[in-house]
Design goal:
By secondary structure, the protein is of the alpha/beta class. The protein contains 8 helices and 12 strands. It folds into 2 domains: about 120 residues, Rossmann fold (3-Layer(aba) Sandwich); about 100 residues, Arc Repressor Mutant, subunit A (Orthogonal Bundle), CATH 1.10.10.
Length: about 240
Amino acid sequence: MGVTDRARRIVVVEDEETIREGICTALRRDSHDPLGFDDGQAAWEAMQAGIPDLAILDIGLPRMDGLELCRRLRARSDRLPIIFVTSREEEFDRVLGLEIGADDYLCKPFSMRELMARVKILLRRAAQIAGADDAEPVQTVGDLRLDPVRLAATWKHEGIPLTVTEFLLLQALVRRPGAVLTRDQLMDSAYPDRTHVSDRTIDSHVKRIRRKFVDADPAFAAIESVYGAGYRYTLGA
């Protein structure tokens, strides 16, 4: 299967039966093990027995919407890959979804090929945790410590809960402290297949990373925006 030797358990929460079954069929074709639900509450109750390897969530769900389900899942696991699919065109909904912890989103209508590409990318990232043999060593830059094997970050000895995407973006900045990285460069680091990722997606992720560090340390200011250029990690900030 490429990413792993075992079928990945993927939860699909979508109240439109045609879309839900289409996604599940595509996942089975890629040798995954999908489990479909048509409402958020049912999915949440089922996942009490165990968190899946990846979750695909619609936003507009009955009983418990996708945003609330995402919040609950993210509270239980910082590393669970989460993809939103939504028919809402308003940018607010998509940005909000990213800010509460989703790794990516697709707007309907979307191609199954595009969705499967994103699933593959996120599963590949999650598999890095198990790839300790050729993993990069722990990196310490000032008060920041990054562990690429566990995808864990600490700031002044306090753990900062980052998603896989957030970790890869932060790692890209820290590798070249003081250098300005464009959004394109950050996309290459966090989305190596460059599957339809917008500048706004990168901005949303960076905003969420900053907020998590500021929550731990109100004086945190190490990630700077450079108007019209991108972002940089500043040593000694």
